[in-house]
Amino acid sequence: MTLHIKEDGEETTGRVVLLPMRAEVLKGHLDALLLATLTEGPRHGYAIKEALRAGSGGRFDLPTGTVYPALHRLERAGLIRGSWSTVNGRRRRSYRLTAAGERALSQERSSWREFSAAVTALLGETPWSAPT
Asked: How far, in Å, CA of 51 to CA of 95, rounded?
């Protein structure tokens, strides 16, 4: 018997329903993703949000209520630095990685490679044997 989750969340057997990407999936990874958007140079908040969306093929189309508080948290932690500018009469805040942010991103990338390799080993198409 194969267990599947229906659209209403109930367990059942039968057809597989793919669940939409939820914000909970990003917990623990959002900071690293935001830092990664700044590796090519400074970006303003909306450009960071768009870089996440475009870089994920539209899968990470996050609300501003998620992105901006995370940027503020990263700034308070000293991982990014923000500065105000005026473009076409509109003020906007741009962010850039600090040296501490670059080190943190490097560590996050290393941790991600280890984690994703372990998950792939368990969830990949190749069957794996469990202890008996």
From this structure: 13
Report yes or no: 95 and 81 within 8 Å, Cβ to Cβ: yes
Of 77, 117, 118, 84, the residue nearest 101 (C-alpha): 77
* Contact call for residues 47 and 64 (beta carbons, < 8 A): no
**Mean pLDDT of all residues in 29-46:** 96
Domains for the chain: give ranges and CATH numbers: 19-111 (1.10.10.10)
Once rounded to an integer, what is the mean pLDDT over residues 71-84?
Answer: 97
Cα-only R_g, the chain: 19
pLDDT band at 13 (very low <50, low <70, confident <90, very high): low
